Amino acid sequence: MLFVRGCLHAAQDQVPEATRSFAQSLSIFQAIGDQFRTAQCETAIGELRLNAGRMESARAHFEQAQSIFAKLGATAEMRRIEVRLATNMLTSVQGAMTNVGAPGMNKTAYLTMSRPLTKMGATAMLPNPQIVLLAVGNPELAGLLARGLEAENYMVENTQDGKAALEKVLSKERDFGMLVLDALLEHKSGFDVCRELRKAKFETPVVLLGGRQGVEDKIEALQAGADDFLSKRNLVFEELLAKMEALLR
């Protein structure tokens, strides 16, 4: 249903809504191991990137879809991707998406990142770069997310300490437009940081990153006052990006 909704949004040129639907569909299909539909989502996201003039990202998604279709022996779909990759717009660029699992995650952990070639990306439509406080305990994952967000026109401030994250927001020295909080932080958990900010009447949007894929972390995150939740065990960068864009509108 989400994938169909994404197709409808794309047909009506509703790019942020289509991106969000496809990203959420991608996360679901990866989680349940549906490779064919995963490849369909990669193709659909590639088309959105192509239409936005983000050629490196488009090629990366098409190549990902092509690889999956090849493994499945889906000849017709693979040929359609080959035709796309052979167009003049894509032949001279390199794919910019990487799949990286950070230490401490299981082997199925999946992070997609894309880097735009032009200023036509979705976040470029924001009038001024938003400042994001990124509080993530794992240094490698924090670095990957920071590079991805900076490529999407966000300004990123990093910390691995929950107490420091809370103090940064409460001090009001920076006007943070978004907080991305890890559940596992030094000195104070992301859940506790969020609770204390809500008690202090701070309404800055919060996306909480938890370590468990079940509902326990999600329920605790929402009860703590977070606006949305993602599991780090199967993290799709573009799903995080879509959630952030939705909260900032």
Q: Could you list some keywords that capture this structure?
A:
249 residues, alpha/beta, Rossmann fold, 5-stranded parallel beta sheet, two-stranded antiparallel sheet, 11 helices, 7 strands, elongated
Poorly predicted regions are 97-127
CATH topology of the largest domain: Rossmann fold
Order of helices and strands: HHHHHHEEEHEHEHEHEH
Tally the beta strands.
7
Overall CATH class of the largest domain: Alpha Beta
CATH superfamily of the largest domain: Response regulator
In whole angstroms, the N-to-C terminal distance is: 24 Å
Helix residue percentage? 40-55%
Mean pLDDT: 81
The amount of beta strand, in percent, is 5-15%
Radius of gyration of CA atoms, rounded to a whole number: 18 Å
Spatial strand sequence of the major β-sheet: 4-3-5-6-7
Task: Describe, in plain words, how this protein is organized in 3D.
The model is unreliable at 97-127 (pLDDT under 50). With 249 residues, the chain is α/β, with parallel strands linked by helices. The chain has a five-stranded parallel β-sheet, sandwiched between helices. Helix 1 runs antiparallel to helix 2 (15-32) and helix 8 packs parallel to helix 9 (190-199). Helices cover 53% and strands 12% of the residues. The chain folds into two domains: 2-99; 122-248, Response regulator (Rossmann fold, 3-Layer(aba) Sandwich), CATH 3.40.50.2300. Strand 5 (176-182), helix 9 and strand 6 form a beta-alpha-beta unit. It has helices at 2-11, 15-32, 35-51, 55-72, 75-85, 88-91, 139-151, 162-171, 190-199, 215-223, 237-248; strands at 98-99, 112-113, 131-135, 155-159, 176-182, 206-210, 228-231.
